[in-house]
Amino acid sequence: MSGIYEEFGVTPGINARGNQTLLGGSTPPPEVQAAMDEAMNSGYVVFEELLRKTGDFIADLLGTEQAFVTSGAAAAISLGTAAALAGQDRDKMSKIPDTSSFDRNELVFQKGQDYTYKRCFTLAGAKLVEIGREDGCTVEEMEAAIGPKTVGIAFYESGLWGDEWVSIEEARALADKHDIRLIVDAAGQIYPLDQFTKTAQMGDVVAFGAKYIGSPHSTGICTGRAEFVESAFMQNFIGFEMAGIQGLARPYGRPYKTDRGEVIGVAAAIRRWFTMNHEERLEMEEAKRTAFQRGLRDVPGVEVTIPNVPQLGPNVVAFVHFDPAVTGIDGHEVIKQLEESDPPIWTRTHDDGGSIGIGVQMLSDEEVEAIVQRIKEILA
Fold first, then answer.
1. What angle do CA 12, 14, 15 make, to 5 degrees?
2. Strand segments (E) across 112-156
3. What is the pTM of this model?
4. Which H or E run contains 146?
5. What are phi and psi of 231, to 5 degrees?
6. What is the pLDDT of residues 113-144, one digit of tens each?
7. d(Cα 335, Cα 313) in Å, to the nearest integer?
8. How many angstroms separate the CA atoms of 353 and 330, rounded?
């Protein structure tokens, strides 16, 4: 039976990677999708009011001063950086991303925390000054790097940094001491709930990926201290439109547009996230992971491990390890054959190709069984 994807020549498959952008990120649960559909079929609204009222609701849940929905965590990082650079200064807003005339336009960043999305801190014109070493950074090293051009600290919060790194609490203290901003990428720090709220309250501006809580893929949350979240809001797409109406110079953030269904989707998703039974959610995800252990335990040369990670947020994974001396093929070949299946099955590479990682949160029980059977067929 042909579906909407097939009508356009697109091949749908089984997502065993989790909330990954390359595969479309997320599938809103029924109650979130229903809220979005209702919003899109209930007429029109003044978008500024929609963003502000839903933002008030989100900020109340997170215990922050202000919030609003963005077009993903990356947009929130970029807008938060713009807020640190410009504050409430309309002239500076109009110049971003050209910050060459700004007194302060540098962000310090722990070198060893290098990661894929640090580029988002520079989109508004900030310059990253990397500090520390590949294996750590001290408070003293970070403080020594703060100079007359420093406007803030760019911080990637993974929830997994050890004592060899400057913690988010220590970064907050340094930011307060030197009157600079703390901009936090906390995209996946959505569980446990106390971690979610604590992280939200640490930064001047904090970015979250709303896809991890069941919102549409292209949504995020910008939250934190009112002075700087308001500056980010002023530089967002609605701020761009309002500035034009008011005869003011337009800021840079016009591309960061959301629609009314997405905004309601984030509000509905975070309401669900704070009221749902997470013990039941984790039990369901654990059952999917152990199903891989049961299903593959008798296959020679195969071992399934379940990592005991301190936070079970966006990436709930089971790892399937292959011994090529027994199986005849390694993880790379298994991944290749899984992706060539009908339907294709997309998994993560792990351990330099010796293993595959299976993100279970997007999988149905039937899809778990289909993956187990397909791996058995490949190794038969």
1. 110
2. 127-131, 150-156
3. 0.95
4. none
5. -60, -45
6. 888 899 999 999 999 999 999 999 999 999 99
7. 24
8. 7
